[in-house]
Amino acid sequence: MNQQQRQASILELVARQGYASIEQLTEHFAVTPQTIRRDLNQLSAEGHLRRVHGGAGMESSTVNTAYATRKTLNLEAKQRIAALLAHQIPDHASLFINIGTSNEVIAEALLDHRGLEIITNNLNVAAILQHKEDFNVIIAGGQIRSRDGGIIGEATIDFINQFKVDFGIIGISGIDEDGSLLEFDYQEVRVAQAIIHNSRQVFLAADHSKFQRNPVVRQGNLAQLDALFTDREPPESIQRLLTQHDVTLHLA
To answer: Residues 178, 218, 210, 196: what is their CA dihedral angle, to the nearest 10 degrees?
Structure first.
């Protein structure tokens, strides 16, 4: 059994049981614990399952992966996506940047630009951009989510609705085969919808793992995008929808 076959069998076993320990998988596949750990880490990074202490379980549709973990997952891919997206943003543009670890990497990629005006509900994005003297960084008001520095709530939506900007840069937790953009937090979704509504162009940054995740809250649809930035070819169903709705696909 090669690595690809073993990993497919691991997913089947975890899906059937809901959880599998490293000890169980080591015995089942007659390989070393180190091999199983590498398999689980890769499958977790790709969004197929949730890595937990001593083993792995299936990805949850109701609870997102911890922020500290998401910051390191697929980081190289996020950096490539960020560089490609930043290249599409001209100097002296206005933009929204919402919550998400991918958007924090995008903020870093924008530091070489000049004269940007950025409205954000992400404290981490604001902290990255605040030292750029020719940027005008505006932070939305509202409730701060302690786990990731996101700002959400009715006050945030009211604030976003005061602006009309050139670009809305959004992240996402999952993309369904029918084109639905999915998130875990209803309040976060309502802010993202306001950003989409008040942006002349909407750019979505999503690494390949987002095509295998199915969070429970509907944020919107691929048809609302102007461009999707990702690091691998999306599934065929997604590609058909992108073509159908004239959404530009950028591969990093």
So the answer is: 100
CB crowding 178-213: b at 16 or more within 10 Å, else e: ebbbbbbbebbbbbbbbbbebbebbbbbbbbbbbeb
Q: Could you tell me which residues come within 8 angstroms of residue 196 by beta carbon, excluding any fewer than 6 positions away?
A: 168, 170, 202, 220, 224
C-alpha separations of 29 from 2, 14, 47, 169 in Å: 11, 13, 22, 43
Q: Give the pLDDT confidence of 142-151 residue by residue, as tens digits.
A: 999 988 999 9
Residue carrying the six token digits 């398999």: 39
33-91 residue pLDDT tens: 999 999 999 988 877 788 877 888 766 655 566 666 667 767 899 999 999 999 999 99
The secondary element (H helix, E strand) that includes residue 175 is: strand 174-175
Bridge partner list, 144: 151
Cβ neighbours around 36 below 10 Å, total: 24
Could you please report the per-residue DSSP string of 213-237? ---SEEEEEGGG-SEEEESSPPPHH
- Looking at residue 6, what is its pLDDT? 93
- Single-letter amino acid, residue 207: D
How many whole angstroms separate alpha carbon 221 and alpha carbon 181? 5
Q: Supply the pTM of this predicted model.
A: 0.78
Beta bridge partners of 249: 228
User: Does 206 have pLDDT greater than 80?
Assistant: yes
The candidate with the shortest Cα–Cα distance to 10, out of 55, 70, 65, is: 55
Q: Is 167 exposed, middle or buried (0-12, 13-18, 19+ CB in 10 A)?
A: buried
